């Protein structure tokens, strides 16, 4: 009996949290980050104020949760198996990753627009974004080190400096897509940047 | 006589403007963009309110002027003669430009920190920054086109997409230097990114 009771409570708790996140996402997308208030979100989620504050102490907190959710989907792409056996294979994998990454930005455009605003305006969100970015750079850095170890990539370059530059190039195009700047088609962007990158890095 | 009178007025006008810009720079650096008010700047410059508003309607305006001043120094670097006759020469020129660019960021760190904040918080400043960035990208794009025309660079890539990615990589390192993120030495950053870039782009 005791166990069941706890489970039920846990389930309810997860549902409340989920309702708040969902309401938060909708409100942020409708009004933008700055204009959204936590009260609006609580009202939309139809939860009590006291309850809501158990889960999120402010809108920054809630946005960070949504940011982590959406970035987890990006990170799955960055985390794809990377075991190329030739320069051609390396190019294909990198091109594929980069296309998936920018396509995801396009697909999640509305939420990414809110995130862009929040990164600019909130110190907490920006700090979180920096942490997430470092995870991506670390992952790319490992891929480069793998290629160096397997004598596919030049060993006279520092994998972490190069990884950062490669992520930067992709990230800047990501924001241009998100902000609806008139960009060339994603495939064209990626073909160009991936061929310079692999051309310069791989032997 | 009439001419002299106008000249004197013009000189005084230039001096007032200069005083306001100088006071603005000092105030922004001391308090940051958000916390600075136009009244503080006017007080520091010891000009009348009415006079001040002839030159700058708000602090965004004044900051944009300072932004243009500092970016003109960066643009001189981007605008250096670029007529390489070999891949090695291209690398040396690009490396030199990139080092000068990041050194300038380091030298102008205090003002660039203010600019970074202003770009995030002010729509007007951000718009201006986008315009300035486009000038840099256009200039790099022309350099790549020159190298392509002279059969030094691959012609199967789009010079403007590649120029944007190269500027992005440099710009992101610029902000890391400005924000005092623990970065590797500038020469090491540049050696790595320039050698991947020229290695991939040049024949």
TrEMBL record, chains A, B:
Pfam families for this protein: TetR_N
UniProtKB keywords: DNA-binding
Residues within the DNA-binding region(s): 37-56
InterPro entries membership: Homeodomain-like_sf, HTH-type_Tx_Regulator, HTH_TetR, Tet_transcr_reg_TetR-rel_C_sf
SUPFAM superfamilies (UniProt xref): Homeodomain-like (SSF46689), Tetracyclin repressor-like, C-terminal domain (SSF48498)
GO molecular function, one term: DNA binding
Sequence ranges assigned to domain HTH tetR-type in this UniProt record: 14-74
PANTHER family: ACREF/ENVCD OPERON REPRESSOR-RELATED, TETR-FAMILY TRANSCRIPTIONAL REGULATOR
Full protein name: TetR/AcrR family transcriptional regulator
Lineage, top ranks: Bacteria, Bacillati, Bacillota, Bacilli, Bacillales
């Amino acid at each position: 009996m005791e166990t069941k009771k706890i489970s039920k409570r846990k389930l309810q708790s997860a549902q409340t949290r989920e309702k708040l996140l969902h309401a938060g996402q909708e409100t942020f997308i409708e009004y933008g980050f700055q204009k959204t208030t936590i009260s609006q979100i609580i009202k939309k989620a139809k939860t009590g104020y006291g309850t809501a504050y158990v889960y999120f102490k402010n809108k920054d907190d809630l946005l960070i949760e949504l940011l982590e959710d959406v970035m987890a989907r990006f990170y799955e792409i960055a985390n794809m198996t990377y075991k190329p056996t030739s320069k051609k294979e390396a190019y294909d994998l990198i091109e594929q990753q980069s296309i998936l990454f920018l396509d995801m930005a396009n697909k999640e455009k509305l939420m990414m627009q809110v995130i862009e605003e929040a990164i600019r305006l909130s110190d907490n969100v920006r700090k979180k974004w920096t942490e997430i970015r470092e995870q991506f750079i670390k992952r790319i850095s490992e891929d480069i080190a793998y290629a160096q170890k397997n004598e596919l990539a030049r060993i006279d370059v520092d994998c972490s400096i190069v990884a950062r530059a490669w992520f930067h190039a992709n990230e800047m195009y990501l924001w241009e897509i998100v902000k609806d700047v008139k960009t060339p088609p994603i495939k064209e962007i990626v073909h160009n940047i991936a061929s310079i990158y692999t051309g310069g890095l791989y032997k």
